[in-house]
Write a structure and sequence with these properties.
- This protein is mostly beta strands and 368 residues long.
Length: 368
């Protein structure tokens, strides 16, 4: 009988300084090996420098949909654990086909880079690999990045429009400046600060179908901005403090919930970061995105064409704050079909604005 110890995929396990992570251990029989029918085996793992098995750490054996059992630890230390389990491999029992879950933590000063540990069962060994990355603050420099802070006018309310819940008569989208691009290089902010018809706020709980984000989970009450509004090249922007010369990552989600006719027509979004409040000239970083509807159960003959499956995609922009710049302005805008060509008038061309959600701006490691 021969078997392989596999750490699990993907490899290596990524863990940030001061962070916690779970790695898996899989036992796989080699071809033509006899099944293992309930043999008690001892297993050991040794962790690399900077990675520890915490005081309340556990080793759990899991068979998806059938079993979740914490295992007895025979011996343990900060970087060494020996445990046992009754092993079933390819024997057709309910305990066959499982894997082991181990929770570990990286020290705040764990050395960065690839770190090697070791997995052992008898004379069979396998490498245990971790990629230790710099600590990433969980704070968000963007205020109201989930669009859950807003204010209605006295007659404002949420209302349903063919299956999508919109905000009507919104007085304020907290922390954000709202406006529209009018073409030929002219940007017009809302004179009253009210979003008006420049953008639409969509209720997330009712209409979002937000995806899972293990890195930065969505919070209850988050909403969506439709950057189109009432057929306008709308925009939202916010100025935040930064440290000159430091690196940052802007992350956000884009989607689209409206089935256009023809369905091949795309929607648009430009994301950009400008130095200052904002400064003219070339942005520090920018990117244009297009999105084709990718939801389920849609057809071009749907009466309303409003659907609740936006096809969310996570986007990331990394940038270095320019020397001497202690503030940057983050702007999301609908360029429409004409783009932002200073020689052309704005052309929103109907419902061309993308959906935007879950915006974050956080310090990031320097570029490799």
């Amino acid at each position: 009988m021969a078997f392989i110890i596999a750490q699990g995929l993907p490899l290596p396990v990524n863990i940030s300084q001061g962070g916690s992570e779970v790695f898996t251990i899989n036992l796989l029989l080699t071809p033509n090996s006899a099944p293992v029918k309930g043999e008690k085996w001892e297993m050991t793992f040794t962790l690399p420098d900077g990675i520890i098995f915490p005081h309340d750490g556990k080793v759990v054996y899991v068979v998806p949909g059938a079993l979740h059992r914490e295992l007895h630890l025979l011996d343990r230390g900060p970087q060494f654990v020996r445990f046992e389990n009754t092993v079933h491999l390819n024997d057709g029992s309910p305990e066959a086909g499982g894997f082991y879950l181990v929770g570990v933590r990286a020290l705040d000063n764990a050395p960065l880079g690839l770190a090697w540990g070791r997995l052992e069962i008898g004379t069979t060994t396998a490498p245990l690999r971790f990629q230790i990355t710099p600590h990433r603050p969980t704070g968000n420099l963007i205020g109201n990045g989930g669009f859950d802070q807003y204010a209605f006018k006295p007659d404002g309310k949420w209302y349903d429009n063919k299956g999508v819940t919109y905000a009507k008569n919104l007085r304020q989208l907290t922390s954000w400046k709202v406006g529209a691009y009018e073409g030929k290089g002219v940007w017009r902010a809302s004179p009253t600060g009210e979003p008006g018809t420049f953008i639409d706020l969509i209720q997330g709980n009712a209409s979002a179908n937000f995806p899972e984000d293990p890195e930065y989970p969505f919070a209850p009450g988050e909403n969506i901005v439709d950057i189109n509004g009432a057929k306008s090249c709308g925009f939202i922007e916010q100025t935040v403090p930064v440290t000159p010369g430091s690196w940052y990552e802007l992350s956000f989600y884009t989607g689209y919930h409206f089935l256009r006719d023809p369905i091949t027509a795309p929607t648009y979004l430009r994301a950009e970061v400008l130095a200052g409040d904002p400064a003219p000239g070339t942005p520090v970083v920018w990117d244009d995105y297009i999105h084709y509807y990718s939801g389920k159960g849609a057809s071009a003959t749907d009466a309303g064409k409003k659907l609740n499956a936006p096809g969310w995609r996570k986007r990331r922009l990394r940038f270095q704050a320019p020397a001497g710049a202690d503030r940057v302005t983050v702007r999301f805008a609908n360029p429409g079909r004409a783009g932002f060509d200073k020689e052309l008038s704005a052309n929103p061309d109907g419902d061309t604005g993308m959906l935007l959600a879950h915006i974050r701006l956080s310090p990031a490691p320097s570029a490799p």
